[in-house]
Each structure stands twice: as structure tokens, then as C-alpha cells.
Amino acid sequence: MQIRGKAWKFGDDVDTDAIIPARYLNTSDSKILAAHCMEDADPEFASKVGTGDIIVAGKNFGCGSSREHAPIAIKAAGVGCVIAQSFARIFYRNAFNMGLPILECSEAVAAIATGDEVEVNLDEGLIINVTSGRTYQAQAVPPFMQKLLQAGGLMPYVREQMIQGGHKF
Amino acid sequence: MAMTISEKILAKHAGKPQVQPDELVEVRVDFALGNDITAPLAIEAFRLAGAKHVFDRERIALVPDHFTPNKDIASAMQVQVLREFAREQNLKYFFEVGRVGVEHALLPEMGLVLPGDVIIGADSHTCTYGALGAFATGVGSTDLAAAMMSGRVWFRVPHTMKFVYRGKLKAWVGGKDLILYTIGQIGVDGARYQAMELTGEVIDALPMADRLTMSNMAIEAGAKVGIIPPDKTTEEYVKGRAQRPYEFYQSDADATYAAVYDWDVSSFEPMVALPHSPGNVRPVTELPDITVHQVVIGSCTNGRLEDLRDAARVLKGKKVAPHVRCLVIPATQDIYRKAMDEGLFQIFLDAEAAISTPTCGPCLGGHMGILAAGERAVATTNRNFVGRMGHPESEVYLSNPAVAAASAVAGKIIHPGNV
Questions:
Q1: pTM for this structure?
Q2: Cβ contact (<8 Å) for A15 and B383?
Q3: A130 touches chain B (CB under 8 A)
């Protein structure tokens, strides 16, 4: 799986209220959530971000609440991948469950700046800063997890598997 | 092999003699919960997966507490999703307004979450039940959906960090101050992916309300669970409420810990977390004059009867400062009734504080007390992130209920002893 886009850089401890403020959680409509993605950290983010763009952040990305609306908002905003130094526990699990690719790589985070063109190869865990020409190695996403991401998350993945196994819904 | 409480509970629920940190295990879930924000997505996922029935109609609670009483049409529609699912699945525990309370106050009070349990909730503060000696942790809606279907969940067994609190607490210092201090010391990711085990003579002497406050905020240090060894206090709290059998687990004396912190807390003052992080903690005595516009006393962290008593002790015979709004939010209907019967409402009303029906409301900037740009609140809640209680340019200071009440009277953040 390849992802390519512009980098948007954020700091440490980006919390889920910054990713999607609770005042918008009276809906789970992904379009509405996307329109407010990262609003309290950067009010213009949702209008600036392009399809395939990449969020690059420091440690403990996604700390705070368990809201799955956070990875939903990021993904629906068009973001193709989040690269961080580290992720909060619940967000990490939610991101895969929602089909949002994420990678941990401190070196890439330190070296990538907002506006850099970045390419990510999930099969190999390779992060390429196209702007600077430098390459960084993160842990590869194993094949079954990539299938899960391609399916759009855990439940669509499980459903596909069951249909392939002969289950009729 | 020696094990910690968390390891023993996970081993038991995985049907194994023992487990080790970093091991992946699939465990049986004793209880699962969701609220009006997270359950609609879980129900959608449940249907997408083609599931027809929940694993056990008596081991799931749907608690519409965040935007209730429904603040607008959209939130009413979300609660309707819960209500219809609860009817369809004949769930035993769905709560309408009039019976509903803040989930992490309500479920322990009802004896639905118990010592030795594995509990998952689609709410990050599910870790509150660690105070009962349960392995309880927050998950996303999809994981809740899977657990509602199968009654099982997979975990990576966390490493455990041990915290030992020694000495004797000063007046006006309690569980909130201890956990704020702890987060201040280790940072908001200091216990990321780990189990916190909260121990020592101070914890042994701590009432259940304070213990629930401490475990509640374990997630604010990134922890998976904040567990407290069950004891006499636990037994007294649980007996008479428990809806099921329960079991006490204790860590072995030679269990392995990833880290041990040992603090004498005798000299501690009440703590305040300054904007915009629960880890930005200072003793109240070291703060400059900070004027406040709103005070919120409530939430899953500090909305219990003992918390309201602390606030009332400070507010008795006093008035909330002009230009300050003081909101008191009993966390459940039972707490509401007892506070009223004890005469606490009289004290709050005489002080010109507002008393709200149980709701999470302002804690997450939902409704019932939202801040304007430039406004500052002292709250007994658990998070003070940017925009948490309203406008992105507002500020939230986290404290214990006595400091919050004192600050309402003074119009600035002060020590309760100085009111």
C-alpha cells in the first residue's frame, strides 16, 4: 500500500478533543466530523488538507478519549496516514479498527516539516521525504493488517472474510 | 511465577495458569458498556458484522449520559439508536433520564462492575473501576461491538508500574490531589500502555470515593488500567450492591514491576492542573491570583456524595462570588437524592450555586455550562485540553471539590482553608 501527500506537522500529546472536539459528537456522520478535523489545533486544517496528505506528530498522538470519531474524522478529511513518535493506546487500536494507516517513527517525525512531500510504503514500513530525498524505516505493517486497512477497518474486513468463507448475510 | 493483580485477572479470564507482560491474550469479558456518543457507532458495527444477538443481555449497559437530557435533535437521535437497540436485544441495563447517571458513578453504585472483573467500555474513563480491584479499560466502538457479539476481547498484557503513597494526608487533600500529583510527575504518557497499581498506607486509608477518583484519571497518564488492591473498604462498598459473585486478587509480594514510585505525601497541598494538560500540575498554594468565571463540581471523577459533602463544607454559610457561576452536578439520581436528604442542596442553594440533573454535560464541552472565549473555569473533572469545556480560547483548571468550591466563593483559585 502506497500513500503520497503533503505533510502537516503537529506537536506532542495531540489529544482527541483537538482531533475532533466533543461539541461535534452528537453525530457520527463522517463528512461532518471531517469538516471539524483538528479544528482546535488548526482551524483551517480541514479546508487546507488534501487527499493522501500525511499528519506528522510527536509523542502520544491521540491521547484522551476513546472516541472512534477521531480516526474517522482524520480519514474522512482525506488524510492517508499518520506518522508519530508514539500513539496513545486506545487511538492506536481505533485507527486500525477504522482503517486509518499509522506508523511510529521518531527519526521521520524529527526530520519532516509541514509542506514536505512524503511517500509511505506500508508493506516495507518505508517513509520517504520526497522533498529532502531522505528515507526512514518504520516497522512494516503485516499483510493481514494491510488487508484490514484496505477493507476499511476491522468490521468490513471480518465481513469480507465471512463472505469468502461462505457466510450469507 | 509471581504475578501482579492485573496479570492474575487476565490469566484467569484467559483460562491460563499465568500470563506475562507483552503476551497477547484473548479474555472473557464480565461487563461491557457504551454511552450516547460511542454506542451508536458500536451498534452500527454490530449490524455491519451481521450479528443478531448480544452475548449476554445482563452484561451490557448502554448509558446515555453525555449529551443528556438530550441537548438537541442530533443527540436525541443518537439516544434513540441506543433505546431501540436495547429494546430489540432486551438489554437489562439501559437508563432513561430520571434513572440515568454518569456511567462511571452509576455502574459501581449499582453493583454491576465488581472486583476481579474484566470490564471494557467505549469510554476512556472505564479505568475508574480499577478502584474496585477490577481490570477495566477503555476501548473504541468497534472493540465494544466485537465484545457485545462474542463476550471476548484481546489484550496485550500490560507491564505494571507500582505507586506507593506513604504518610498522612493534610486536611483538604485527597485522591484527586494524589492522582494529579502522580500525572504531574510521570507525564501524560508516563504510563502509556501500562497498568498502574496504586498502593501504600495512604491508599489503604482512602475512602472508596477517593479511590474511584484516582483510578478514573489513570488514563490521563496514558495507562490501560489504574488498579487498587481490594481490601476491607472494597468489601464494605461492594457487599449489598453486587449483582454477581466477585473475587479479590492481590499481587504477589515478589511480582515484577516495570517501575516503582514511592512518595511520602504528608506535606502535599491540594493540587491544581493548569491549562491545557492534566500533567501541568502545581500545588494550589504556589499559584498566583487566577480569577475564575465558572466552577463545575461533578463528573465521573468527582461527582459522588463525598465530593458534594466536601464542596458543601466549604460553601456552608457563604455565597458564590458575584460574576461567578457555580454548577453542582450530582453524578447519579441516588447521589442527588442523598445530597438533598442530607441538606446539602440547602447549602448549595443558599450559596447561590446551581444544581443540575446528572449529566457529563460541561465536562466535555457538551452542554449545561459552556465557556465563552477568554473565560476560565475551575472544574473537578478530568481533562483541561484546549476547548474541552467550550471555546478554544477558554481555560480549565482541574482541582478537588473543596478547592473548586473555595474558588467559587473567592472568585479566584484559593486553598479551601483560606475561605
A1: 0.97
A2: yes
A3: no
The answer to whether the CB atoms of A40 and B364 lie below 8 A apart is no
A chain contacts of residue B186, beta-carbon cutoff 8 Å: none
Q: Which residues contact B244 (CB under 8 A, 6 or more apart)?
A: B30, B114
**CATH class of this structure's domain B271-418:** alpha beta
φ and ψ at residue A137, rounded to 5 degrees = -110, 120
Per-residue pLDDT, A102: 97
* Residue A162 pLDDT greater than 90, yes or no: no
Q: Do B192 and A60 touch (CB under 8 A)?
A: yes
Q: Do A90 and B140 touch (CB under 8 A)?
A: yes
Q: Indicate if the alpha-carbon torsion angle A39, B359, B106, B340 is positive or negative.
A: positive
Contacts of A68 (CB under 8 A, 6+ apart): A94, A97, A98, B38, B41, B122, B140, B141, B142
Angle between helices B208-216 and B175-186 (to 10 degrees): 30
Digit-coded pLDDT (tens) for B285-315: 999 999 999 999 999 999 999 999 999 999 9
CB contact under 8 A, A90 and B122: no
Cβ contact B188–A13 (<8 Å): yes
Please state, in angstroms and rounded to a whole number, the distance separating the CA atoms of residues A80 and A74. Answer: 9
Of the residues B63, B66, B144, B192, the best mutation for testing chain A's interface (the one with the most A CB atoms within 10 Å of its CB) is B192
Measured distance CA(B315)–CA(B306) in Å, rounded: 14
Judged against a pLDDT cut of 80, whether residue A169 lies above it is answered with: no
Q: Which H or E run contains A136?
A: strand A134-137
Asked if A9 has any chain B CB less than 8 Å from its own CB, the reply is no
Same fold for the domain at B5-262 and the one at B271-418? yes
Every domain of chain B and the residues it spans = 5-262, 271-418
3-class DSSP state of A5: strand
pLDDT class for B284, splitting at 50, 70, 90?
A: very high
Sheet holding B259-264: strands in order across? Answer: B225-227, B195-199, B160-166, B259-264
- pLDDT tens track for A78-111: 999 999 999 999 999 999 999 999 999 999 999 9
Closest to A92 in 3D by CA, of A49, A155, A145, A159 = A145
pLDDT, residue A89, reads 97
Give the ipTM.
0.95
Q: Is A57 on the interface with B (CB under 8 A)?
A: no
- CA of B35 vs chain A CAs: smallest distance (Å): 11
A53–chain B Cβ distance below 8 A for any pair: no
Domain B5-262 has CATH 3.40.50.11270: no
Angstrom distance (rounded) from CA A135 to CA A149: 23
Rounded to a whole number, what is the distance in Å from the CA of B210 to chain A's nearest CA? 21
**What are the distances in angstroms from CA B302 to CA B206, B305, B308, B404?**
15, 9, 8, 11
